[in-house]
Amino acid sequence: MQSTQTHPKFTWRFLALGVSTRNVIHITATTEREARDQSPVGCVMVFACRLPVQGVSHA
Known about the structure:
The chain is mainly beta. Helix content is 10%, strand content 42%. It is elongated, with a radius of gyration of 14 Å.
């Protein structure tokens, strides 16, 4: 039997430090590990925060 429960997604914010660049990166993922796996290659990723993904409101 498969679980029907969905895992919440978050927006993970990192400071990406490269050899000559610094950027704030936002990645949508379920876990921090998943977000880090999607991060740019060759950057040191410094965790800044985790924000809930907001649903779209149709009024």
